[in-house]
Amino acid sequence: RAQRRTAKLASxxxxxxxxxxxxxxxxxxxxxxxxxxxxxxxxxxxxFVTGSVxxxxxxxWVHWRTYWPERMSVFSEMELAKYDGSDPxxxxxxxxxxxxxxVSASRRIYGPGGSYSHFAxxxxxxxxxxxxxxxxxxxxxxxxxxxxxxxVEHWKQFFLKSEKYFQVGTVLHEPIPxxxxxxxxxxxxxxxxxxEVVERRKRGEEL
Length: 207
Fold this sequence. Notes:
The chain has 207 residues and is of the alpha+beta class. It has two domains: 1-50, no CATH class; 64-174 and 184-203, Cytochrome b5-like heme/steroid binding domain (Flavocytochrome B2, Chain A, domain 1). The chain has seven helices and four strands; from the N terminus they run ααβαββαααβα. It has helices at 2-10, 27-50, 77-80, 107-110, 125-130, 146-160, 195-202, and strands spanning 73-76, 93-96, 99-102, 166-172. The protein has a four-stranded mixed β-sheet. The N and C termini lie far apart (94 Å).
């Protein structure tokens, strides 16, 4: 282009737009190109070193649902039970005080045989607080102390802010029939405690 322009100027020919030099890149555009090249280099290096362009990171920030959330679904208790991990083709969901989270990222933990499989496919909010996994796989929070209710809220915030898990909807529970007895506590082995022991614990009395 420079040679053609020089020849035309020497022969007094008019210059055309294609004879002119292309404008230099603006500083922002040049920085953007450098950034993209560096990003590509880091991704390729991560793929080579760790087998992942994200250098092994699998948190929520590399999942598209973080930026384009799916429409929230409303589950019945029966529908939620389908997502307990028994069907490998379905995701694993757990309920917590009415909220439903996708915990498929930890299928080894929440799936069948996992250490927290009792939480999958149900809203076991009470067990999150009391630790009575066998007896308290229920959303019934009646009779819990302020400290125990705070523990439930703590776990809700944990899942809401998690880098691996996503809220996918809510679960509708049937109203607890009037007159339903309150659930008791359990010992370290998951066995039900006598009612008088539960009451003494609530009052902070030594056993």
